[in-house]
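Handout, section B. The chain below has 376 residues.
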Amino acid sequence: MPPMLHRKPQHHNDNHHHHNNTANGNANNANGYSPIRNTLKLSISEDHDVKKTLNQSAMRRRKNLYKRIRVFIVTSGILALLYHGYYEGRRYIQSRVPSVSFENPNSDDSSSQQLRGSNESDEGATIQPEVCFITASYSKKKKEMDKLLVINNKSPYLRFYLFTNLNDQEWSTPGWTKIVTHFKYRRIITHSRYGKFLGWKEPEIQECKAVFYMDACLRPSENQTMWRELADIIATDETGTGLMQWPHPKNRSGVIGEFLAIKDSKKDIDKNIVKSLQWMIAQEDLDVKAKIYMNENFGYDPNSQVYRELSQAFWDQYSLEEDSWRDQPLWAFMLHRYNITPIPYPVPYKQVWQRNDGRALGHHGHAYTSEKDVLA
């Protein structure tokens, strides 16, 4: 316990004190001052000094407060000017850059078909695309296709590619450049996974600095500057991985937990889930706690040798069509097998992607209850 402060004791000579009181008693009374009066006067004097000291202290505090307020006001004004100047400059720069925007798939605006992205600048010179968006949708019937966003793209730096089995006469997709493929795979889902993971094999995709795959249920941000910056991060990745991806936000305890979630959401049938688990358990390098990543969107460098080998190894197993048609567990397995950690996104998810209308997904919301639901 810290020492307490005590007043220093005062020593008095009792005899001397008594003598003085006796000798001076009449004088004090004569002058109108009794000991009580003296004591009272001293108390008033001390109280006045205390008040004076307190008032001076309060004035100093007020002066310091006013000084801090003035500093705060001046600083806030400077920051406001800097903030205004930054965003005015940013707005000016963005106004000089061709724009991109999106519309709901059910929009009736036919003019959007005239706003497709161009590969040429105002001077007519061909510009290499920096950001290529890819999605994939396959079906035997147009009515079962995903309802894609209508793309209004005036930017020469962006491209939008659609992997599908239907041509323009069979299915109109404003703003999307189609890459039509016809495979012999038994499952229609396998057809769509080709463009998702192996789109880099197409010559036009290899021209892109970075590719961003997106499910049809997603709407990318219209911030073109951000996408070009993300493309730069992927293309200049020092590890050579060339893959940018989000970890899954839900803790599903690795591949086992992911398969349980697949079963609960009816995204695959029990037989396929069991076969996938049997295959993984037979592998010596299985890690049941391997981190699960979100495959509804990811970015990659189409010319990265690491990504090419990774996606090809994934495809060699997935395209056998012997087990689960879901790709997240096998993708997590391959990332662990080849000791690959994707580049983390430097911005929050909602600044990059937004959920589109839930009705955009075809095939009954991509829910399957039997093998025949996925037959090509």
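Note. The mean pLDDT is 79. Compare this with the example in section A.
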